[in-house]
Description:
This protein has 622 residues and is α/β, with parallel strands linked by helices. Helices cover 47% and strands 10% of the residues. It has 21 helices and 18 strands. The radius of gyration is 26 Å and the shape is globular. It binds (2R)-2,3-dihydroxypropyl phosphate and manganese (II) ion.
Amino acid sequence: MKRERNYIYLYTALFWIKLYIVQRLFFDIPVHGWLDEAAILIGTLSSAALLSAIITLLSRKRMHLWFLIASAAGSAIVVSNVIYYRFFHRFMTVAILTQTGNASTLKHSLFTQISFPADLLIFLDTIIIGYIFWKKHPKLQLSGIPKLKKVVVLFVVFFVCISINLAAAQDENKGDTASSNQKNKAELVKNAGIYNYHIYDLGSFIHLKTLKWFADPEDLEKVEEQMDEWNPNVVSDYFGIAEGKNVIFISMESLQGFVLEKEIAGQEVTPFLNDLIKDSWYFSDLYHQTAHGKTSDSEFIVETSLYPLDTSSVFFNYSNNTYQTLSRALKEIGYTSAVFHANDATFWNRDKMYETIGYDRFYDIESFEVTEENSVGWGLQDRDFFEQSMQYVRELPEPFAAKWITLTNHHPFESEFYRDWVSQIPTDNEVVRDYFGTVRYMDQSIEHFFELMKEEGLYEDSIFVLYGDHYGIAPTHYKDLGEVLGEPITEFEDVMLQRVPFIIHVPGEEPFRDDRAAGQIDIKPTVEHLLGIEHTADTIEFGYPLVAQERPAFAVLRDGTFITDESVYTNETCYSRETKKVDGTGACDQYIDMAQFHLNLSDEIIYGDLLRFLEPEAASSN
Ligand code: GP9
Ligand code: MN
């Protein structure tokens, strides 16, 4: 009987070993010495001990079976987390499980993230416990035996471990007010183990969902007061310059800034965009600010000038909120708004969120003829997508604001285009190599779109707003990407890779290039400014009109990283942009709190649904 009870410790040890291996090998948790190493060992032990304590306490008969089930469930959670992390470079949260609507389409991309046989290590404990169960069952009884001592021991182990680690972490972070949410998550996983992280995350999910119930109009007033400081009431020669013109948005899937003005294997990657920027306003230092919601986050930022969330997609979890959207502001001045996107309307919960945003028309996959011949990767090829959309554009009453969301340049970047050139790109990494091929294809499709707009007679009366939605090459491919680009991708370069092209083309206007730091958050105020929409005291937005002479050069990424013209601050390290080296002069200090302050304030607005407290007319527009 005693020997039987020792299985509890054996299983706990197996949980522990598995968690330790997973956390060391599969997640990017910084380890700078033996103290961090010890923290992971202690943290994973605390997770293993708590899980075992709970199973031991709750299971009466069939304890082995419950250990087996818990271990299998734990492995399933961990494997989902690992795959998610490889794709998004973020820890999975409970809130993301609400995004099941995306699962069927995303699975294609996510499956490519499985690494076999290494990922079998995640099931190490389950395999061994399963084997013991299969071999020894039904001899294993372990029912009705006194287990209380074991439960107490396990709980004590849990409490001691977690206390040591959290106390040490608090000490380490003293005075660090700017630790980002993602960093906090990594810290939590390190110090408490992945299972405890999930328990904590569940609690925090419930807490965040309840914030809305307790919010009141005074909370909005407080936010407004705090935002007064940077109310972007700017004047410029560009105010109203595009008044009455159609606004054509092109959301360029996974397009990163580094491919522009770049030659690889003897050819330009984006010949059309390279020409276009010479005849446009090109903002070369603009960063995407998306997180879990990828394309949908970029849509959210462009529509609201708020930051997306660090816990899940706003489109999925906060689609019932009130927002001040660009589309509603345009409606107020007589515009019709439309979105073209050849995917299911439910992906990213767009069907619901688009109503909240206030789009008049949504041309989803049902509006397009998708065949095997005209499809690639995620669906309808960009060129066909643009061509088929023309029949609907003709129907739109002018002036209109319409957004095209491209799709071909989506991970895993499958295409047969430009194969000869792609095969000369010096890497065996297919994701990296094929990325250039699909980018080039998208570039050519956009060129075709401009031709179509000219044929339709819509070109002269429109302004074109093109932006990359988010990164395409995940950090897991940085080694190979660095080889293609000819320089290793350091922590500093990683931040530079978060730049996405932002181009405004106004036919007939003098081109310029603006190299000041900016973010997607600035797109809404910029477009409003060009269309002559006033920024009022009730306007809540975090960005600035980029065309203004006097504007801050400042971009905060969702993980707390920020960029100014002189510095980059990431992972609590300040870099000089000039030398690309660590900058010890304190150049970042004055911005550290501000960056976190912006993110927190934006979160407060969304979690509390504070914009519902605006006067009705201010809520629907600016
Ligand atoms: C899918 C498209 C691409 O509808 O928006 O999604 P992504 O994975 O980039 O968010
Ligand atoms: Mn996207």
